[in-house]
Amino acid sequence: MADVILETKRLTKEFKGFTAVNGVDLQVQRGHIHALIGPNGAGKTTCFNLLTKFLVPSSGQILFNGKDITGAKPAQIARMGIIRSFQISAVFPHLTVLQNVRIGLQRGLGTSFHFWRSEGSLDQLNERAMALLGEVDLEGFADTVTADLPYGRKRALEIATTLAMEPELMLLDEPTQGMGHEDVHRVTELIKKVSAGRTILMVEHNMNVVSGICDRISVLQRGAMLAEGTYAEVSKNPQVMQAYMGTADGELEGAHA
Question: What is the pLDDT of residue 118?
């Protein structure tokens, strides 16, 4: 039996008569990069919001390491090691790159968000913060004010701050959205690099990204699971081609949902 870190059973979310997520059974294996893909309106972000407890399921179950977390609060699941990076870059723009990562590390000190602490008490975090910046190729930007970073580098910083929370499972919400080709390539390589020894579940539109780094792909359509498998398996599935391209003989390669 594969080592499943996250599982949903018949996960469902209804909004006043509209079913956004409909009976989804998802299994994410430990150590994998797993993508959730699908056309616009397929329920991907709603599914993510259910997993991170920003929404409460109408029915169904969510299990993390075999433990039922369906009723857990967002802060509780973050403490368990499920950490989400947001679609819109979630960093403090007027702090430096190094300061942003230190805030993520403060959780380990038990002084989370104590902005009134003296700078000196946080200096002990600098070494670890610089190591994390090294992981995402941002050492040279440590003293840069975050607002001045190029967009792709901001996303790299967001991944570093997510790593600072020591996630067992990282949830990445459209990590390459709005990026040019060069940034997409850099962030894709970065995700591959930081996935060593970690599990990543990501919502992603760019099929070239998904095909390049994902071990397993789940395809949602109208809130339900349409297909699951490797990229090679999913991209040949006629139903998936039809969902993306509106035609059974369409090519999934390079399609943007």
Answer: 58
